[in-house]
Amino acid sequence: MRDILDRQRSAFMAELPVSAAVRRDRLKRAAAMIVDNQQRFCDTLSEDFGHRSHEQSLLTDIASSVSPIRHATKSLDRWMKPDRRPVLFPLGLLGARAWVEYQPKGVIGIIAPWNFPVNLVMSPLAGVLAAGNRAMVKTSEFTPCVAALFEELGASYFDESEVAFVSGGPDVGKAFAGLPFDHLLFTGATGIAKHILHAAADNLVPVTLELGGKSPVIVGAGADMRQATERVVLGKMMNAGQICLAPDYMLVPAGREQEAMDGLRAAASALYPSLIDNPDYTAIINDRHHQRLTDWIEDARAKGATVEVVNPANEDFGASNGRKMPLHIVRDATDDMTVMQEEIFGPVLPVRRYHAIDDAIGEVNRRDRPLALYHFGTDEAERRRVLDRTISGGVTLDDVIFHVSQEELPFGGIGPSGMGAYHGEAGFRTFSHARSIYKQPRIDVAKLGGLKPPYGAAIRKAVARQMKG
């Protein structure tokens, strides 16, 4: 891996400056790699998961990979323009100029997760290539078929000095994180992110972390419960809840709990009338994660929660050979239950009541800052209070997850849910160095301002002028 990094950095330095035409060519090849091989990617995704909806993969891993690349290609000229900045009075009047140029950083490392193992490689790669960088990508060991396909196809569409894919387990990941990249992007669990930061710190590598957390849904007092529950279920059951932005728990007004339970059950039954043989429903990624979710459900039951399993076709999941799991709604979840302590990352949804909107806000604020927050309701004052009194990575109003699909909205978390952001222009800026440039006028400014010794009245006047503001 170090040899690849050295070759990429050498090629990068030899190429400077990286023209818009070169950047567009690389973006074009990145899009072609996905478009030309979309069926193979969908097949390998399903093989890695044990079953994954073909149509969902087309949406969440194929189209959502190509879209940011196309957007970057169209926006490139605007993003690359130098940014003029004002200069201090009176230097501007004397002919001084200042601007910012966005230079590529060099070689960017990308560590991708398993839940969307195509999109979460290609979406950041759009910003990396648009910014004029080279890239090394560490794919997830939990999706080995996708990883192998990336290594095969990457060599066909890119020289290894441009974009390289590497795979392997934790030892490879640890070594990858310790490479002296010019920037490192990690998408994954908060616990692993701490190790990534430690590894990157030895080389002072700047890091962007895209993590997760317990993203809440607040259902306002006047919300349309049928609409809210349907949209929550759609977001919770997509990819079987294995989404960093999936609604993690739901806060509903006291007195509307049963209405929420009924709405969730009806929506899940309508969207997925059966599960085991349903091609639209995805399996849990592996046995370990399936057992983890099963243990957390049993922990909630043992500690007094009521768990409703939404199984409209009365299927026998214990007798099936797969890892599909129906939606489990956990009512009366308490803080001592694991489902209220850890990010769930599966089709398990705790539902809790609140009495006043400030109680719901307090519930959110006493936990780690989440990657996303969702609010349903019609009361604008209530909504404004939720937005003003909570802090989260991003927000979708009257739905869930959708803010991630808006290419010009920065995507990222805050605190334990992440560090930094990308997507669209934010990604271009993240993977660029904002280089400040100042051009002095012809006049001798140092002499005019009394900056040359011996100091006297001129410098005192200059200082007094600056102190006035």
Automatic annotation (TrEMBL):
GO biological process, one term: aldehyde metabolic process
Pfam families assigned to the protein according to its UniProt record, in alphabetical order: Aldedh (PF00171)
Keywords of this entry: NAD, Oxidoreductase
Gene3D superfamilies for this protein: Aldehyde Dehydrogenase, Chain A, domain 1, Aldehyde Dehydrogenase, Chain A, domain 2
Ranges where the Aldehyde dehydrogenase domain occurs: 17-436
Family: Belongs to the aldehyde dehydrogenase family.
Protein name: Aldehyde dehydrogenase
Species of provenance: Sphingomonas baiyangensis
